[in-house]
Every structure is written in structure tokens, then in C-alpha cells.
Specification:
This protein is mainly α and 252 residues long. It is 86% helix and 0% strand.
Length: 252
């Protein structure tokens, strides 16, 4: 019984994703709504992403220094922090923040529209609710998540520099020069692709849960909760898969 329900849910999600790809290339294009959602997702997340990134850089530097100091290798700190932030921490932490902040908001917003029959009203008024509500939000999360990731990686490096400068009086130019020489184009490219995949998962899961909410206000809360939980679970699964693929591409 449980497996039957699980397979049915997976089938419905696959149909939902297939409908997204069939609608995304078909006019009319809701550019204004996409821009609005990009603003809501990106600009309004900057404060939380900035604070989290800065603290992550400081904390990771503090935790890493004693281990490197034991081998007399504190000069490796900029490179180590750059690699950790760009390859793993920035994409993962940014996506988890977006899943918690944006994914729950999408699930609750579309869920409330579903239970109050606003989506049905859009269909009656000759508006395609799927393209207007779903396609715009999924594209916004897919495009804005990589931008937030790159911004968080930079802010994290700034936080790490502040900590290193206070301890060792390292110059700003020397810190970032060492940090950037430690990462490759593959590292940045892989992180951008990861962030796009995570953003797509956050958007599609949030929209699916909201679009299929039921049972009144209780269903809205359930949609918001499941949007966050399932998105975070998928992010960790996708992280493991993408890391394996990138490691195969990385020169030995």
C-alpha cells in the first residue's frame, strides 16, 4: 500500500515536471511575473544570505586554523576556505536557506490560492494559471539560486579574510589572490550547475505541493511543510550524485 502511494506520487510529480517543460517554451511568456519572482527570491534573500555567508566564513576559518597550525600550514587557509566554500558550502547552505525561506513561501502561497479557488478563477478568466504561477516561480528559483550562491561564496570569503587578517595581518589582495588560484573553472561551473539543479528542485516541489493542496487551511500548512522537507531531502540526494559526477571529470 505504501509503495503504491509512493509510486503514484512519483508519477504525478513526473507529469508535473513534464507539463512544466511543455509550457516553458510555449508563448505567451510571463516576463513581468518572472522578473517579480526573481526580485522576491533574490533581493529579499540577500540579508539572510549575507549574514549566513559572513558567519560561515568566520566560523570555518576559526575551526580550520588549529588543524593547519599543528602542521605549520596556516598559509594554506585562503586556499582551503576558497575550495570549501565554492565546491560545497556555498551551494549547499544557500540552497537550504532558499528551500526554507522561498520553498515554504511558494507552497503556502499557491496552497492558499488552491483552497480558496483562485486558481480555478484564473482558468475561467482565460489565464493559464500553470504558466503564470508555476513556470515563473520555477524559472526564478532556477536562475536566482546560482546568483545567490556566488554572492554567498564571496561574502564567506570576506568573512574568512576578516578573521585571517585579525590573526595574521594578511593583506586583502594576497588573501584573495591565493584563494582564487586554488579553485578552477570546473569548481565554479560545477557549483553553478548544482545550484541551478537545487533551485529547480526547490521551485518545482514548492509549486507541486501548493498546486495540489487540499483540506482547507490545514492543507496549506501541510503543503508549506512538505515543500521544505522534500526539497531539502532532494538537495542532499542531488549533492551526492553531482559530487560523484564532478569527481569523475576532475583531473587526477
Amino acid at each position: 500500500m505504501i509503495y503504491t502511494v509512493l509510486l503514484t506520487d512519483i508519477m504525478h510529480v513526473c507529469r508535473f515536471i513534464a507539463r512544466f517543460f511543455s509550457e516553458v517554451f510555449r508563448p505567451p511568456y510571463e516576463f513581468r511575473e518572472i522578473a517579480k519572482q526573481c526580485y522576491n527570491i533574490g533581493y529579499r534573500s540577500l540579508t539572510l544570505v549575507s549574514l549566513t555567508g559572513f558567519i560561515t566564513g568566520i566560523v570555518f576559518t576559526k575551526q580550520s586554523r588549529p588543524s593547519l597550525a599543528a602542521f605549520g600550514a596556516t598559509s594554506w587557509l585562503p586556499g582551503l576556505i576558497s575550495i570549501a566554500l565554492v565546491r560545497a558550502l556555498a551551494p549547499l547552505i544557500t540552497s537550504l536557506i532558499v528551500a526554507g525561506k522561498v520553498g515554504s513561501n511558494i507552497g503556502a502561497e499557491l496552497g492558499s490560492m488552491k483552497v480558496t479557488e483562485q486558481i480555478e478563477a484564473m482558468e475561467v478568466s482565460a489565464t493559464n494559471p500553470f504558466k503564470f504561477l508555476v513556470v515563473s516561480r520555477v524559472l526564478a528559483t532556477t536562475f536566482m539560486n546560482p546568483m545567490l550562491m556566488l554572492y554567498m561564496a564571496f561574502i564567506g570569503l570576506v568573512g574568512a579574510y576578516v578573521n585571517v587578517h585579525m590573526s595574521e595581518d594578511t593583506s586583502f589582495v594576497a588573501f584573495f589572490q591565493h584563494g582564487f588560484t586554488s579553485i578552477s573553472f570546473l569548481d565554479v561551473f560545477a557549483s553553478v550547475i548544482k545550484s541551478m539543479v537545487y533551485g529547480f528542485s526547490i521551485g518545482i516541489i514548492g509549486c507541486y505541493q501548493g498546486f495540489n493542496a487540499e483540506k482547507g487551511t490545514q492543507g496549506v500548512g501541510k503543503a508549506a511543510n512538505q515543500a521544505v522537507v522534500i526539497s531539502m531531502f532532494l538537495i542532499f540526494i542531488e549533492e551526492m550524485i553531482i559530487v560523484q559526477i564532478v569527481n569523475q571529470l576532475r583531473p587526477s
